[in-house]
Specification:
The structure holds two protein chains of two kinds.
Chain A: H1 16-35, E1 41-45, E2 48-51, E3 58-59, E4 61-66, E5 69-72, E6 78-81, E7 87-89, E8 94-97, E9 101-109, E10 112-120, H2 131-141, H3 168-177, H4 193-198, H5 215-225, E11 238-244, E12 247-249, E13 255-257, E14 259-264, E15 269-271, E16 277-280, E17 286-288, E18 293-296, E19 301-309, E20 312-320, H6 335-347, H7 357-369, H8 375-383, H9 389-398, H10 401-414, H11 419-422, H12 424-439, H13 444-452, E21 456-457, H14 465-469, H15 473-485, H16 504-511, E22 517-521, E23 527-531, E24 537-538, E25 545-546, H17 564-573, H18 580-593, H19 613-625, H20 630-639, E26 666-667, H21 670-681, H22 707-711, H23 731-739, H24 741-747, H25 753-758, H26 764-775, H27 782-793, H28 799-811, H29 814-817, E27 818-819
Parallel strand pairs in A: 2-10, 12-20
Antiparallel strand pairs in A: 1-4, 3-8, 4-5, 6-9, 7-8, 9-10, 11-14, 13-18, 14-15, 16-19, 17-18, 19-20, 21-23, 22-23, 24-25, 26-27
Helix pairs in contact in A: 2-5, 6-19, 7-9, 8-26, 9-20, 10-12, 13-17, 15-16, 18-19, 23-24, 26-28
Chain B: E1 2-6, E2 9-13, H1 19-28, H2 36-39, H3 43-46, E3 56-62, H4 80-83, E4 88-90, E5 97-99, H5 103-107, E6 112-118, H6 125-134, H7 156-164, E7 173-176, E8 195-196, H8 219-238, H9 248-257, H10 259-265, H11 272-278, H12 282-295, E9 300-305, H13 314-339, E10 346-351, E11 355-356, E12 368-369, E13 373-378, E14 387-388, E15 390-391, E16 398-400, H14 405-415, E17 423-425, E18 431-433
Helix pairs in contact in B: 6-14, 12-13
Classes of the chains: A alpha+beta, B alpha/beta.
């Protein structure tokens, strides 16, 4: 059944040659532009304009080409129409018809003159207006059917349209037959509520959406005048849309006009630029306005512009290099460095500097095991002269029990181990199972197969509790798609996904894998998950049965299996699955690098591409090659020079947020921060009912009452999204760290670090070193030493108080509170 | 908003008018110079900072469902099993009557307005509370006590704090005397969560968590600590380490370090006459503290006033314990703000998540009834002294100008100069406007 995946990952590797070609071509652009300015050449497209309706228009594109460098002159060109009665061209280079006939149009730009022939028909005798092709796009572009307005589930003021016009039949009903026939008045078209509301001559909550002299208004009016036909004979479904140009290199502050052309089944093409929605995924690099004009900002980088018209999506990819940047290519440890340096070189972004040993130690401890290094560990690592000490440290950490604790906690969040939802016993069972997976380094694909096919008692040491949380087939289907494939199909529950290929059909098709999952009561009041035969799921709107199939795959074949989920698990973890390896590779990348190659990390789609496509492919391939060994994959990530960059920025990379030219400071998860504070102060946190000294990352009880966890954003485990864990800072957090009795009692604890050091024979300098090593994993600088020395000399305080004050100060530095 | 100037006087003709009303006006020729479309610009986009007066909002939430018919919407003509034992009294506004236990509010009825036609269809406490504060139906069942997550929508307080930002050293959004269960930031995240004062300001030992003096820490040691910390942070920047981390520690630092900011929380500094005028009750002192916080720049204070779910033998407790403290707190707050010249810029709202059943039940209580509720509005640019909307003879449903949850929220946004149509992406990346539609409460805005 999984033979028909559109883009096979031949033996665990996407066809990387193709993307390489594109990128090396793009790379050459940057260099050519600077080095060999060639004679400019102006191109005007299209060479021939055919307008067949009174409200049609055609976007012209005027482009100056000089070597590989392109400049948009669409708005700078002069347009001279030979027969001004036939057409007019507006300031944006849009050709509007005025009367039937033919004319020539001269486009003068940069001392070049180009002639375009224009033919206009259908003005005097307009053809019938197509509801699907000509009316629905107007409603979409004017945002009538948006989620904030009539497109939302309950409509607006009694008028409901399908979201973004995905259901033409529904919309036609709503306009023509509902609303007591007032929305469309065939006998007096201008009196139609649709028109009157659109131009707001009667009160309209959404305000004025159209100008009465706009082509859109005129087209609506003409459609009503023609009797508001549902369809036009001979109209063909829209086949595809093209965006031009599809890849662009822009300079900073430059503008560029896009054009969108729709093609129907017979190959007839028409301009759809004006009716298309444009959305940039990185507006800080490139913004797109509603007319399809791109505006590059000051920041070099990349953007993908989502182009959406009548349920079809396309992407335009834009790269904005920093020009004139010298690039000295750092050495490479592995393929990660190759791809990142390639990208940075193309963008003209200089990578930052490598991180020092102390920084590496602290970062890798937090990232791998969620734990702060102790002063002794820091001292030992800093003193170690071995050249391979960093990789040995990573090996050691991966073998520590905290590795299993920390990653079990992270996955318990994702697998919804909420003790209220799945019972305390279920939470314990799931957490213990996860800990075992990570400590034994179970291959990820095997782990997922076990998760997907889990059955048995909820409290058993197994992933069964996950299916107690996912207690509906549709909930299971969309949660699992998001978590394991990085595909958010939730949108397709109510309507076609607005920026992906998934329909309500796909949504129901996927849900069919989980229809056999049930909960059975066991004697003694416990429960078990059982897998029964299962059946198809129903289409969310039509309630018709939908054949079960995985996303993008053929209909599933359940012969010879009692549990439908096994078929899904096999499809998902098969080498050629295009989503599975990428989703987990991106998730792990995001954990270690502070940001995914795709963000949000579980929203992988064509219209939301990775910021480094070849790297994404290579990571997925590598993960397959190491047979989903997560520790091996982690070693590769951590061995890269990219991982070992410092957070220090330079002039060329300080604005870079997408390309990993420097490290990002990461907020510490609530549990990790509390553990770090407890360890640094030497005073463990008391958790009611747990032995003293238990680490927060080892506590399975996600509902343990704790002010600290609450304000620092511990997740409730209500969703499978990592985004549920909040890492935004707040004033309450800051106050708590600076001034709470709880933290202060740790600092001043009777058996705490400060008291122990104060009562020791250590000199003030040695004391300070010890505090720094146990908090920041480094020695203080001479300036810091001098600063803190004053404290000991200030006289007023006792030695113990002075040590407490130093510890307090260091604990409250941002350097302590962040992983950097 | 469109202003029609007639000589010196100007009267704002806006969304408060019904459509029929305007069509009639349109026929008189008075408006002939104006294009009608301009007049009816989207209510949301019509709101702007230039016309909005409110700079802050104090939101007194009577959690559990205050009985509207026993307070601000009495029905003395109804049968005894509906009207209840309380008698109506006259107020300072001729023709407007409240229940006899709302006597403080009755004295100042000309200073605020009552909307008697708020109505929605969510009869649960947690779900109704969530609906009222977010404008969205709850994604959880009533009776669950959900911890706010990013699946939720942001509450009114989080929206106000995000749109208006801080105006001083205080956090822009504060809850007291405990978190409002529906007052969370939803998908906005912790940055827009309320700063919660989890203490009762009517208690003599009242202190705000993490803002007090640490025991055993002298002022000189505190100063030394702050000096060392800022020295270390300065060194760190000089070392070239990332300076990009949050400014929140700076803000908290200012809060602790600034005697004026800390003083805002010190309700003990109010003189006893003022304190007693609000009543030495939890709601009274919360209202007073809210005033102090707003004076110091807080944008939205949400006061949760629990205990209003009066299913059993409700009248003695309404009469003794519930209505008089809330009545007094609201009236004292409005008077105090007025005397200090702050009422014009401070919006005060008192409401609950539902009203209560018209008919008194067999246990001499009233049950959940969300179909009719009253909301009190004062200050912040509202037109005072009005009763807006009306319920039927049994106070069971609106008969005039029904107001939905999103009408309420949109109106509050507009009063604060916030554009309700502004969109943010939720946790799934969907663009979500601040309110789910909504129109202005007719005639409320001055």
């Amino acid at each position: 059944m999984w033979a028909v995946i559109t883009k096979p990952l031949s033996e665990c590797g996407l066809d990387m040659k193709v993307s390489f070609k594109i990128w090396s071509w793009l790379a050459s652009l940057g260099i050519v532009v600077v080095a060999f300015p060639l004679r400019a050449d102006v191109q005007v497209s299209p060479a021939r304009v055919v307008l067949t309706r009174a409200e049609d228009c055609q976007q012209l594109l005027v482009t100056e080409k000089s070597g590989e460098r392109e400049r948009d002159l669409t708005r700078d060109a002069r347009y001279i129409v030979r027969e001004p009665a036939i057409i007019r061209v507006d300031a944006d280079g849009l050709v509007h018809p005025l009367a039937d006939g033919a004319t020539m149009l001269s486009v003068i730009a940069d001392q070049n003159e180009t002639t375009v022939s224009v033919t206009v028909s259908g003005v005097a005798n307009p053809p019938l207006v197509s509801f699907e092709h000509e009316i629905v796009p107007i409603l979409t572009k004017a945002r009538c059917n948006s989620g904030g307005c009539h497109g939302k589930a309950e409509g607006q003021n009694g008028f409901k349209l399908s979201l973004l016009g995905f259901d033409g039949t529904f919309d036609y009903e709503a306009l023509v037959t509902q609303g007591k026939g007032r929305r469309i008045i065939l006998s007096a078209p201008p009196q139609s509520l649709l028109l009157q509301k659109a131009i707001a001559v009667v009160p309209h909550g959404g305000g004025k959406k159209l100008d009465p002299d706009s082509p859109q208004y005129l087209r609506l009016q003409r459609w009503i005048t023609q009797g508001a036909p549902r369809s036009v004979s001979g109209e063909l479904p829209l086949l595809s849309i093209d965006v031009e140009p599809a890849t662009i290199v822009m300079r900073r502050h430059e503008q560029r006009q896009l054009r969108v052309t729709a093609k129907d089944d017979s190959g007839v093409r028409s301009d759809a630029t004006v009716e298309t929605d444009f959305l940039s995924n990185a507006p800080h690099v490139v913004e797109a306005n509603s007319r399809g004009m791109l505006q590059a900002a000051d920041i070099p980088g990349e953007a993908a512009i989502l182009v959406r018209y009548l349920g079809h999506v396309a992407v335009c990819r834009v790269i904005v290099p920093r020009d004139g940047q010298r690039f000295s290519r750092p050495p490479e440890s592995n393929f990660i460095d190759t791809f990142v340096w390639d990208k940075l070189e193309r963008l003209g972004i200089e990578p930052g500097v490598p991180i020092d040993d102390a920084g590496f130690l602290r970062r890798v401890f937090f990232d791998v095991i969620g734990t702060l290094p102790t002063a002794a560990e820091a001292r030992r690592f800093l003193a170690d002269p071995a050249p391979d000490k960093r990789s040995r440290l990573v090996d050691d950490l991966l073998d520590r029990p905290e590795y299993a604790d920390y990653w079990a906690m992270k996955w318990a969040d994702l697998l919804r181990a909420d003790k209220i939802k799945v019972t305390p016993q279920g939470t314990v069972g799931l957490t213990r199972w996860l800990r075992k997976q990570f400590s034994e380094n179970q291959p990820y694909d095997e782990m997922v197969r076990e998760i997907l096919t889990a059955q048995g008692p909820v409290q058993s040491e197994s992933p069964v509790a996950f299916f107690k949380a996912l207690d509906q087939p549709e909930l299971a289907s969309r949660s699992i798609s998001q978590l394991l494939l990085g595909i958010r199909i939730e949108c397709a529950q109510c309507h076609h996904h607005p920026s992906d290929r998934w329909s309500q059909e796909d949504y129901a098709g996927m849900a069919g894998f989980f229809t056999g999952v049930g909960i059975k009561k066991l004697p003694g009041g416990t429960e078990a998950i059982v897998a029964r035969r299962g059946t198809y799921a129903k289409h969310p709107r039509t309630r018709e049965p939908v054949m079960t199939r995985a996303l993008g795959a053929k209909e599933a074949d359940f012969s010879g299996t009692a549990d439908r989920r096994q078929v899904l698990a096999a499809w998902m973890t098969a080498g050629e699955n295009p989503y599975f390896a990428r989703a987990i590779a991106n998730r792990l990348w995001a954990h270690y690098f502070g940001r995914g190659l795709v963000e949000p990390i579980d929203d992988l789609r064509t219209t939301n591409p990775p910021t480094n496509e070849p790297l994404m492919d290579a990571l997925a391939t590598h993960l397959c090659q190491v047979k989903f060994d997560l520790k091996a994959f982690t070693r590769t990530l951590l061995a890269s020079r990219v991982y070992q960059l410092s957070v220090v920025t330079n002039a060329s990379n300080q604005d870079d947020r997408q390309h990993f030219s420097h490290a990002f400071p990461k907020a510490l998860p609530a549990e990790v921060l509390l553990d770090a504070v407890s360890q640094a102060t030497g005073v463990p946190e008391k958790f009611n009912g747990w032995p003293l000294g238990t680490r927060s990352i080892a506590v399975w009880d996600n509902r343990m009452p704790s002010y600290f966890f609450r304000i620092f954003g511990r997740p409730v485990r209500a969703t499978v999204c990592e985004c549920e864990r909040s890492n935004e800072p707040s004033i309450s957090q800051a106050l708590h760290l600076l001034n709470s009795p709880e933290i202060n009692s740790k600092i001043a604890g009777r058996n705490g670090t400060a008291r122990r050091l104060a009562e020791s024979q250590l000199s003030n300098v040695e004391l300070t070193d010890e505090i720094f090593l146990g908090t920041l994993s480094r020695f203080p600088t001479p300036e810091e030493r001098a600063l803190l020395e004053e404290t000991f000399d200030s006289g007023g305080a006792t030695r113990r108080q002075a040590v407490e004050d130093v510890l307090w100060s260091v604990l409250n530095t941002k350097e302590f509170l962040y992983n950097h | 908003m469109v202003t029609i100037g007639i000589g010196e006087r100007s009267s704002r003709l806006c969304n408060g008018l019904s459509r029929r009303h305007v069509l009639r006006l349109g026929g008189t020729g008075l408006l002939s110079a104006l294009t009608l479309p301009k007049l009816f610009e989207s209510p949301a986009s019509a709101a702007s900072d230039s016309t909005a007066k409110a700079r802050a909002c104090i939101f007194l939430f009577l959690e559990g469902g205050p009985p509207h018919q026993d307070m601000w919407d009495p029905k003395p003509e109804a049968p005894a099993e509906i009207r209840g034992p309380f008698s109506p009294i006259a107020t300072s506004v001729p023709g407007t009557r409240f229940s006899e236990h709302c006597r403080e509010c009755a004295k100042i009825a000309h200073k605020f307005s009552v909307v008697r036609s708020h109505s929605h269809a969510d009869n649960g406490h947690m779900t109704g509370y969530y609906y009222v504060m977010t404008g969205r139906r709850a994604p959880f069942a009533d009776g669950e006590h959900p911890i706010p997550t990013n699946e939720h929508f942001p509450s009114l307080g989080s929206i106000v704090s995000r749109e208006m930002g801080a105006a001083g050293k205080l956090p822009p959004y504060i809850n007291m005397p405990h978190p409002m269960s529906a007052g969370g930031p939803g998908f906005y995240g912790a940055e827009f969560a309320p700063f919660v004062i989890e203490a009762d300001p009517s208690q003599p030992d009242f202190e705000v968590k993490d803002l007090g003096q640490i025991a055993g820490l002298t002022e000189s040691r505190s100063a030394l600590r702050r000096k060392m910390l800022s020295g270390l942070e300065r060194e760190r920047q000089r070392n070239g380490r990332a300076a990009t981390m949050s400014t929140y520690y700076g803000k908290a630092y200012e809060l602790i370090g600034s005697p004026e900011a800390r003083r805002a929380f010190r309700i003990q500094e109010e003189n006893s006459t003022v304190r007693e005028s609000y009543g030495m009750t939890q709601v009274g002192q919360c209202a007073l503290l809210a005033r102090r916080l707003v004076e110091s720049g807080c944008r939205f204070v949400g006061v949760d006033v629990p205990g209003w779910d009066v299913h059993f033998n409700c009248f003695p407790s309404l009469k003794e314990d519930l209505i008089p403290p809330a009545d007094r707190a609201f009236a004292a707050l409005v008077n105090d703000l007025d005397q200090r010249g702050l009422l014009e810029n401070t919006l005060v709202i008192m409401m609950g998540e539902m009203g209560r059943t018209p008919r008194i039940n067999a246990q001499a209580g009233r049950d959940h009834w969300s179909m009719a509720q009253s909301i009190l509005f004062a200050g912040g640019g509202i037109k005072p002294g009005q009763v807006i909307g009306e319920t039927d003879k049994q106070a069971a449903a609106p008969t005039r100008d029904p107001v939905s949850v999103n009408d309420f929220l949109h109106t509050v946004h507009t009063l604060l100069g916030i554009d309700s149509a502004k969109e943010y992406s939720d946790s799934l990346g969907r663009p979500v406007p601040l309110t789910d539609g909504g129109k202005l409460i007719p005639g409320l805005i001055a």
